[in-house]
Amino acid sequence: MKTAKYIFNYFLISFVWIAILYSIYWIKDTNKFIQVSLPESTTHFIQINTKRIIKSTLLDIWFRNKDVEIINSIHGLLLSKDETQVIPQVNFKLTKPVYYIKCSYENSDVYLLKGTPENTERIKYPENFYLSKTNDLYQIIRSTNPKINYTELKNKLFDKMVKYTIENNEIALYGIKNRQIVSTYIPELIDNKILLNLSSNQVSNRKVLTQNQSGVHFTINTDFFKLFNSTSTKFISNIEGISINYYGADYNGDNELLSVSPKFDLILNFNKDDSIASVLNIVRNELTKDVQLYQNRITLFNNNYYFHQINKNTIFISTKPYKQHKIINSKDGFIVKGQPKYLTQVRNLGWRASFLSMIPTYHSIDHFVNTIEGIDFQSSNNISTITLSFSNDLIPRIEILRLILALNS
User: Distance (Å, rounded) from C-alpha 128 to C-alpha 310?
Assistant: First the structure.
């Protein structure tokens, strides 16, 4: 019986991979530029070219990959019979681009998926779907307004459309203001590197940290995150930019098994004036009872976190006292530098480190960040490039796929 099962599985896997390899030649390259029509109130969107992603991934798996483990993981996923995992219904053609869209509507945020309908007939869709006259299918995923009226929303949201011309990338993120694309974030995979090409014309001059060599540095314009987060939280919506040097974390010796204290320098840039007092009020509500608040610092697990008001809309927070020479002015909207290994580093754990490595999510992320040897940043005339360099024998697309498979196992 087992022999028959193995033979069946062998033929099943063979059939799947033959179909996949055939699709590599069936999927042809498309035009360099494409046009997309979006609701007039669109503020951000992600372009996902599933056709090109599938083709590039399959080519890497079969013609560049030397690791059998990743293929075995895919086989395990294909042959999985876990009845608790429900496969969602796909309403969009995966051979056509799909778009994740954020729109504004009456002081709320609306999130949509857009694509070409899988069914060629004009069938009746659920109330959270909208099929346009041009045969574009929209799915309303969620809204920050809990009392959403789908009929009214669709009548107003799709009343006026704006057409944008964009490059036909595998994946890209765009920010829109006044019906114009004002920022782009486009990843590109070349050899053993991931290049993130950025352009923005709306970043104002603000205070940021200089990179510390013994850590990893991020300077981020929050426009990047507004695609995924609503602006309904007043404190979050008031933050214009974040700049941080992160040095890993230390085990703090508390009785709890894995109670750690992160080490960092952080700058928060606000759109409007904000003060240390208002930030401390938020900290008081969010942190545990073990936190002790003082005028310009907090103490948590015997570790001090210092606050300093640089100017009326800029606040510095750090595990070390404020030093002015670490601060510069910059218009770069997105900077990443340093060693990613610090993101998962926890020092002084001793024997407890073995318990941490047994956590699947931590182990997978830790493995991924340690495959990145370094991050470089270059900028000129509002155009920046961030380069993530992997080891010479590694394929970035395979490592990303490995991480996704591990996190979903």
Answer: 47
- Residue pLDDT, tens place only, 192-203: 999 999 887 766
**pLDDT reported for residue 356:** 81
Number of other residues whose CB lies within 10 A of the CB of residue 384: 20
Q: Is pLDDT above 50 for 86?
A: no
Report yes or no: 309 and 352 within 8 Å, Cβ to Cβ: no
Residue 118: is its pLDDT beyond 90? no
> What is the spatial distance between Cα 184 and Cα 224, in angstroms, rounded to a whole number?
9
Query: Two tokens at 291?
Result: 């936190």
Q: Exposure pattern of 326-354 as b/e (b: 16+ CB <10 Å)?
A: bbeebebbbbbbbbbbbbbbbeebeeeee
**Residue entry with tokens 């029509």:** 37
**Cα 329 from Cα 208, distance rounded (Å):** 6
CB 46 within 8 A of CB 181: no
User: Of 371, 362, 368, 405, nearest to 389 (Cα)?
Assistant: 371
For the segment 139-173, what is each residue's pLDDT rounded down to a tens digit?
999 888 878 888 899 999 999 999 999 998 999 99
CA distance 73 to 9: 14
Entry pTM = 0.80
- For 208-224, give the DSSP string: EEPPPSSSEEEEEEGGG
| Angstrom distance (rounded) from CA 131 to CA 33 | 24
Neighbours of 222 (CB within 10 A): 19
Instruction: Give me the helix-helix angle, 50-63 and 68-78, nearest 10°.
Output: 130
Q: How far is the C-alpha of 237 from the C-alpha of 290, rounded, in Å?
A: 28
Question: Could you give the count of Cα atoms lying within 13 Å of 148 in the half-sphere of its Cβ?
Answer: 20
Task: Answer whether residue 315 shows pLDDT above 70.
Answer: yes
pLDDT at 87: 47
The answer to whether 273 and 240 are in contact (CB under 8 A) is no
